Amino acid sequence: MTRYSLTICASDYDRLREHLGSVPEIEQAAYLVCRVARSEPETCLLVREVIPVLADDIVEADADHMIIRSRSFTRAMKQANDQRACFVFAHSHPNGYRDHSPADDETEVSLFRTAYIRIRTPGVHGSLAFTPSGLSAARVWLPDGTTAPLERARIVGDRLRYWFPTGPREAVPEFFDRQVRAFGSDIQVLLGRLRIGVVGAGGTGSCVAEQLIRLGVGSLVIADGERFERSNVNRVYGSRAIDDEIAKVELIERLAADIGLNTKVRIIDRPISYRSVLEEFRHCDAIFGCTDDEWGRSLLTKLAIYYCVPVFDMGVRIDSNDGTIRSIQGRVTTLLPGTACLFCRGRISVQRIRAESLSATNPQQAAALIEEGYIPELGDPAPSVIPFTTTIAASAISEFLHRLTGFLGQDRKSSEVLHLMEDTRVRTNHRPPNEECFCGDRTYWARGDVEPFLDTTWRSE
Ligand SMILES: [Zn+2]
Ligand SMILES: [Zn+2]
């Protein structure tokens, strides 16, 4: 059965709440224009635009009802249809009533019948109710006139907030006692509900996965196309010297089973450069980018913007010459709409991505172009040592926990952490997108499903 979700950028969510609470004791409403991310298990509504219903279009309103002129919502529906988007109606309950009211049930039948007539976009339309303390009820209307609850909403920004319908209070297993003492039981319940993606199962990826499992994250999706080699044992968590030639992701599956916290692990033994693989990451609540290639990083950069999925991308570079280390630098960069992406930051380059993708899909042509100097040589595998990959993996997990809890202080907003390990120094920075970069152009924010996926040409499956 399909589950339904909604993702909204924190700036839009805050603006929406501000409008819905703008007149004390009087109901207010807004429309959300949403693109969609659809797969068999999940349909996600990605909020692109918040359209407040203004006073001109309100016939009457008080603390527990409002009547809106039809021109107001038909205009919003037209806009949704023109933008190949879906339609969400949001309104406030100033009296604090949490659920959709019997009056909502009645009036929304015809509102959403109209939506399905006027909007041709494949997907579903939805309805949200807010109390003065925030989102309190959320559902979708299906084409047959029935409703289904929204399974979760993600509010993505400096903080990552996840909303779930209220259900019976979940007990926190005693395994997590020491962590609960640090962050409280709400975070523990939240971790148990999250679906986290891990891209790459090498030095950093296996370490990230082990931490996520032990933290109590409920569900992991992990992709890596490589097989384990014995030389990996010195840095891959969960591996053994006797393991040979098995897919690296299988090591993580085994590790999770051995730890025994009932973590759901979905393993994919192919790289995210295959469309079918990366598409599975659209519905993650957050992703850890632990790949060491720029091609994979460029795809995650796009995914973060198109689907508003926070990506914690990490890398470690050891510069050594004949066994003498000159520098060890690591970084964790958080990718989200509104912050500088890996292109803006010069962390990845078009030439290198081209060299990597061509070497994987057409080695002969790649060799010829390298020979002619059109694309850079890829070089030997970089050095990698477990304390350094572990430091960066742990730093990425801390960034994630900070976005969930704010434990590093509310005004700590940096989107990149740099570890200059040979100097024992850590620096942070916060940068907006470059003006010429795609990531600063709002047409790409929450763009959702397009054909081809991510507006990219894909290798054949
Ligand atoms: Zn209502
Ligand atoms: Zn950028």
3D structure, described in words:
- With 461 residues, this protein is α/β, with parallel strands linked by helices.
- The protein has 2 domains: 161 residues, Cytidine Deaminase, domain 2, CATH 3.40.140; 282 residues, NAD(P)-binding Rossmann-like Domain (Rossmann fold).
- Helix content is 31%, strand content 26%.
- The protein contains 12 helices and 19 strands.
- Strands 9-8-7-6-2-3-1-10-11 form a 9-stranded mixed sheet. Strands 14-13-12-15-16-17-18-19 form an 8-stranded mixed sheet, sandwiched between helices. A two-stranded antiparallel sheet has the order 4-5.
- Helix 4 crosses helix 5 and helix 6 packs parallel to helix 7.
- The protein binds zinc ion (2 copies).
- The site of one zinc ion has 5 residues, from loops.
Task: Supply database-style keywords.
Cytidine Deaminase, domain 2; 12 helices; Rossmann fold; 461 residues; globular; 19 strands; binds zinc ion
How many helical elements?
Answer: 12
State the share of residues found in helices, binned by percent: 25-40%
Mean pLDDT: 95
What is the CA-CA span between the terminal residues?
Answer: 27 Å
In terms of per-residue confidence, which ranges show pLDDT below 50 for 5 or more consecutive residues?
A: none
Structural class: alpha/beta
Strand order of the largest sheet: 9-8-7-6-2-3-1-10-11
Number of domains: 2
CATH fold assignment of the largest domain: Rossmann fold
Query: Which percent range describes the beta-strand content?
Result: 25-35%
Count of extended strands: 19
**Assigned CATH class of the largest domain:** Alpha Beta
Shape: globular
Main sheet properties:
9 strands, mixed
Relevant CATH superfamily of the largest domain = NAD(P)-binding Rossmann-like Domain
Bound molecules: zinc ion
Architecture per CATH nomenclature, i.e. the level-2 architecture of the largest domain: 3-Layer(aba) Sandwich
CA radius of gyration = 24 Å
